[in-house]
């Protein structure tokens, strides 16, 4: 009996030591610490992964585009995700929102662009004050513009079961209705990265 207990204790100690070597910090003169293993596990537990099946339930349509994002654009991604959560909507709504903003503004909070402007469209979603989306100040506020987009999305019957580009187009009424599809993968990747951050 003592031999079995001793082997079990030594086996557990060996696993703890190996866990410390592979998971903990290593320095030339410091022995690995068993205490470092729970810290690593706690950090991983704080950021659960997002269900990939929720992000792109229907698969992407067509060729996908990608842009490298600046810090400001990543801040806008986080603002869209925060507004989506505040509206009580899920990760898929955030994917649709981010893909829409990628198409409309490349996630840049655009003001009036003069001759290059599409009518009076502004902000992340290129919403128009003259179409009732809000004032210029409102639609250039990422939280407000996202909330306005999501309000429109909620009114689309069955948006969760639609391809992304159809759901986005129903809200946006764009002259280029199929262009939203190209951003679905990047939008999903951004939601996976930032939803729990």
Summarize the structure.
With 197 residues, the chain is mainly α. It is built from 9 helices and no strands.
- Unreliably modeled segments: 1-45
SSE topology string? HHHHHHHHH
| H/I helix tally | 9
Overall outline = globular
Distance between the termini: 49 Å
Cα-atom Rg, whole angstroms? 23 Å
| Biggest beta-sheet profile | none
Mean pLDDT: 79
Helix content estimate: 40-55%
Report what the structure shows:
This protein is 53% helix and 0% strand. It contains 9 helices and no strands. α4 crosses α7. It is globular and about 40 Å long. The N terminus is likely disordered. The protein is mainly α.
Question: Which key phrases capture this entry?
Answer:
197 residues; mainly alpha; 9 helices; 0% strand; globular; disordered N terminus
Topology:
Elements: H1 2-23, H2 36-46, H3 52-55, H4 71-86, H5 91-105, H6 136-139, H7 142-154, H8 164-172, H9 184-194
């Amino acid at each position: 009996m003592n031999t079995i207990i001793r082997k079990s204790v030594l086996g557990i100690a060996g696993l703890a030591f190996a866990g410390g070597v592979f998971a903990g910090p290593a320095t030339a003169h410091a022995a690995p610490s068993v205490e470092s293993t729970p810290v690593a596990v706690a950090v991983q537990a704080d950021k659960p992964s997002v269900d990939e099946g929720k992000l792109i339930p229907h698969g992407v349509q067509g060729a996908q585009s990608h842009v490298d994002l600046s810090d400001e654009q990543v801040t806008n991604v986080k603002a869209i995700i925060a507004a989506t959560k505040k509206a009580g909507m899920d990760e898929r709504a955030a994917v649709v929102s981010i893909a829409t903003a990628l198409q409309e503004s490349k996630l840049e909070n655009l003001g009036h662009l003069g001759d290059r402007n599409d009518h009076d469209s502004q902000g992340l979603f290129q919403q128009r004050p003259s179409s009732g989306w809000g004032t210029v100040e409102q639609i250039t506020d990422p939280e407000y513009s996202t909330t306005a987009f999501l309000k429109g999305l909620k009114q689309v019957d069955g948006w969760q079961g639609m391809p992304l580009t159809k759901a986005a187009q129903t809200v946006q009424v764009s002259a280029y209705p199929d262009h939203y599809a190209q951003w679905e993968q990047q939008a999903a990747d951004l939601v996976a990265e930032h939803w729990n951050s």
